[in-house]
């Protein structure tokens, strides 16, 4: 049992270099950029979702060390990208809110770097190791889905709270209008039925 646990821990540490989950606010007409140092063959997995602001959309791109666009999206509310590095160096990914003039956007995103597995040919492959590696990848996918679901829940909650607030204010406005109309009608009817005496 201890051997299995040790193998699992080693497999996870060897397979996954870094995992990061962030929430970032991108002001209007600005962009926020991040970078990863990748070796050739590394796999960069990025998933994001706009949680708050405007139409819940943002521009996104990934560039290689030569500043060449390798992935991009325009006005996307959410997306997932898997990119295998063709060269070693600093790969940059950016969220841009340049098209928005007033509204800032809140973006939640995950960044995951997977190192390619290099099999040791000097020893026999252990089937347990392969199973552990597959399990680690499946666990990471589940984590990504959970974070995506949390971001969606936050978006829906904000929408529901905004709608509720508007309904409350609209109800108060209608009540105020109804009160004013009632006062006006009572005053007008009182005046209509007043008896005017001529002395």
UniProtKB/TrEMBL annotation:
It is found in: Endomembrane system; Membrane. InterPro entries: Emp24-like, GOLD_dom, GOLD_dom_sf. It is a single-pass membrane protein; Single-pass type I membrane protein. Keywords: Coiled coil, Membrane, Signal, Transmembrane, Transmembrane helix. The chain crosses the membrane at residues 167-189. GO terms for cellular component: endomembrane system; membrane. Residues 118-148 form a coiled coil. The keyword RNA-binding does not apply. Residues 1-21 form the signal peptide. It comes from the Eukaryota. Residues 31-113 form the GOLD domain. Belongs to the EMP24/GP25L family. This is P24 complex component. It comes from Entomortierella chlamydospora. The lineage of its organism: Eukaryota, Fungi, Fungi incertae sedis, Mucoromycota, Mortierellomycotina.
